[in-house]
Design brief:
The complex is a heterodimer of chains A (424) and B (178). Chain A has helices at 6-11, 59-65, 70-78, 87-100, 106-134, 138-159, 182-204, 207-213, 221-226, 231-235, 243-246, 273-296, 309-318, 355-359, 363-367, 375-382, 405-423; strands at residues 19-23, 35-41, 44-51, 168-169, 172-173, 321-329, 332-340, 349-353, 391-396, 399-404. Chain A is α+β, with helices and mostly antiparallel strands and 424 residues long. Residues 386-400 of chain A have low confidence and may be disordered. Chain B folds into 2 domains: 3-143, Beta Polymerase, domain 2; 148-178, no CATH class. In chain B, 28% of the residues lie in helices and 26% in strands. Chain B is built from 5 helices and 7 strands. The longest helix of chain B has 12 residues, at 3-14. Chain B is globular and about 55 Å long. The N and C termini of chain B lie far apart (72 Å). The chains are: A alpha+beta (424), B alpha+beta (178). Chains A and B meet through helix 5, strand 7 and strand 8 of A and strand 5, strand 6, strand 7 and helix 3 of B.
Chain lengths: 424, 178
């Protein structure tokens, strides 16, 4: 019993005192460190504190104040995120093109769209595999990551790299898609078409996956709207929020993108982890459609309005103005603001917003009143970039214990097995 | 939602306070053309919550980011908001520009009206040294709690020394050879 707060105590079933359980910040297997301090009463989470910034590299400062020119800053923008490595350059080039009044040829716009949709497929499949692993369903992890290789091969074929594609440049793109590459992309589309139904079946019709994700980590539509959640996190709560649909850019009006919510799969949106799986898998299908349409209607012509880099740099140095560029990355809205001053090579102001920045606040309601064993999957459900389940540092009655990520995962897997037994 | 409609609502709510409103549309699409609307306007700092509340009443409101920079005598903040998501091409981007004097760099918080603005307001506190009276949490988001400088200010005499120490530590702070 907690004598200090009898009301709250009744609410959480008289489980006694609240303990603070810090998770993170460092784990070598994950890209971004973060510290989540959970306040738990027994197995129930009653509050969470989030501390980010352990991997803050000051990229905007490096772009603004250390004498880089805009092309050097473009490569810096590409390295903000490994998985979204076309989303940031697309938003950044658009912002600079608005500021400097540069037009992008139609064919270049189509190539940018194709590469970014390929990126969405690989990112969503990566996430699905991580989600399966967090649930202890490693067969599914290996299946999804095996089929993900196909899209990475196509990205390598088209750009030369599996990530960090270096495709957009101010005024166009750096590489064309050649006639002999088309059949390979078509073959990839056919491959995923055949697989998608199988993947949906494996994830959504498995009773254990459903039991572990239904009703877990709920984000109510009202909360999602107020907290300005973006991407699949917002769409799983039923908000029709997709930058490609709401304020289309580049060639996106041609494809008439519609925001995907669980309703498109015949479900009432609940905003839980299950709905986030539904939205992400359906978006793989949507991206395939967009790539297909783009390949069919690909305009002919130039791929850049500035084929010579010195001319481009000279134009950018003279440019004066400000601009916004946005893009729907796999995880949600990316936005860049740039201001250029004539005579300066670096931008005067450069502000970057990545999707997780907007989704950070949605974690608070999601973790509320959940179980400790569900922490890995809830943390992973908004974005696999930030979940740092390195170790749990448990302070219980003044005695300190350290839990490893393996320990937490073991807890999660045990819960899955327990549920299977109940069902059998 | 149309830009004219948004501009009308902003003018009705702010009147004289809405300075130099400007429409900056962009043409997008290759085969199907689409005009995406953007509104840019200057608003005095005390009217920011009023402007955000007016946009909130108009339709679903999203805050992308607050960007800002040190403009010498003042600190310039730009609120990048988007109103009216949910329909095809129906969202209008609204950028509100405001200037804060260096002597009193404060602007009322909008986290009460739009809770999603909290992270970006907290980020401005640590990077530009501005303050948002009324914000629920003030702790740092990205920078260490004990960082002595605001990195985006251009008038920080300590900043250059601090960066120098970070980059050149081997030369300056390394073991002294006697």
């Amino acid at each position: 019993m907690d004598p200090k707060n009898p009301e709250k105590d009744r609410q959480y079933g008289g489980l006694g005192e609240v303990f603070a359980v810090p998770i993170g910040p460092i784990h070598p297997a994950l890209k971004e460190p973060i510290r989540l301090t959970f306040h738990v009463r027994g197995e129930r989470i009653v509050g969470v504190e989030i501390r980010t910034g352990f991997a803050h590299r000051g990229i905007e400062f490096m772009g603004m104040r250390q004498g880089r020119n805009l092309i050097q800053v473009l490569y810096l923008a590409e390295r903000i995120c490994g998985i979204c490595s076309i989303s940031h350059p697309i938003a950044f080039t658009q912002a600079v093109e608005r500021a400097a009044g540069i037009e992008v040829p139609p064919r270049a716009q189509y190539i940018r769209v194709i590469i970014s949709e390929l990126e969405r497929i690989h990112s969503h499949l990566l996430w699905a595999g991580v989600a399966a692993h967090e649930l202890g369903f490693d067969t599914l992890l290996h299946l999804t990551w095996r089929v993900r290789e196909k899209v990475l091969d196509i990205l390598e074929e088209l750009t030369g790299n599996r990530i960090n594609y270096a495709i957009p440049i101010f005024g166009g793109v750096r590489r064309d898609i050649t006639p002999e590459q088309y059949p390979k992309v078509w073959e990839m589309i056919r491959y995923y078409r055949g697989l998608l139904e199988q993947l949906l079946d494996a994830f959504l019709r498995d009773p254990t996956v459903e039991a572990r994700t239904r009703g877990v980590g709920i984000l109510e539509p009202k909360e999602a709207e107020e907290l300005c959640a973006v991407g699949p996190t917002a769409r799983a709560s039923g908000l029709k929020k997709d930058v490609r649909q709401d304020r289309p850019y580049l060639a996106y009006p041609d494809f008439e993108v519609k925001a995907i919510t669980p309703e498109d799969y015949g479900l009432t949106p609940m905003g839980d982890v299950f709905d986030k799986i539904v939205v992400r898998l359906l978006e793989v299908g949507q991206s395939l459609e967009i790539i297909e349409k783009a390949l069919e209607n690909m305009p002919e012509g130039e791929i850049t309005s500035f084929p010579k880099i010195p001319a481009l740099l000279a134009h950018l140095k003279k440019a004066e103005g400000e601009g916004l560029g946005w893009h729907e990355a796999p995880r949600g809205e990316v936005i860049h603001y740039v201001r250029l001053v004539s005579g300066e090579e670096s931008p005067l102001v450069w502000k970057v917003k990545a999707p997780t920045y907007s989704n950070l606040l949605s974690w608070y309601p999601m973790f509320e009143d959940q179980e400790v064993a569900d922490i890995p999957i809830i943390a992973a459900c908004i974005d696999p970039c930030i979940c740092c389940m390195d170790r749990v540092y448990l302070v219980r009655n003044g005695r300190e214990e350290t839990w490893t990520k393996e320990e937490l995962l073991r807890l999660s897997w045990e819960k899955t097995r327990r549920m299977r037994r109940w069902r059998a | 939602m149309k830009a004219a409609q948004v501009l009308e609502a902003l003018t009705a709510a702010l009147g004289e306070k809405l300075k130099s409103p400007e429409l900056r549309p962009r043409e997008t699409g290759v085969r199907k053309k689409w005009r995406v609307e953007e509104i840019w306007a200057e608003v005095p700092r005390e009217a920011i919550p009023q402007a955000v509340a007016a946009l909130r009443n108009l339709g679903p409101l999203h805050i992308s980011i607050i960007s800002g920079h040190d403009a010498g005598e003042t600190i310039e903040l730009l609120y990048h908001l988007a109103v009216g998501f949910g329909t095809e091409g129906g969202e209008v981007m609204v950028t509100l520009r405001t200037f804060l004097p260096k002597g009193d760099p404060t602007v009322p918080s909008i986290s009460g009206i739009l809770p999603g603005a909290e992270t970006t307001e907290r980020e401005k506190i640590e990077f530009l040294g501005v303050d948002f009276p009324g914000i629920p949490r003030r702790d740092h988001v990205f920078l260490p709690d004990d960082l002595p400088v605001h990195p985006w200010r251009r008038d920080e005499p300590e900043l250059q020394k601090f960066l120098h120490r970070m980059v050149e530590w081997e030369k300056d702070d390394g073991p002294q050879k006697s």
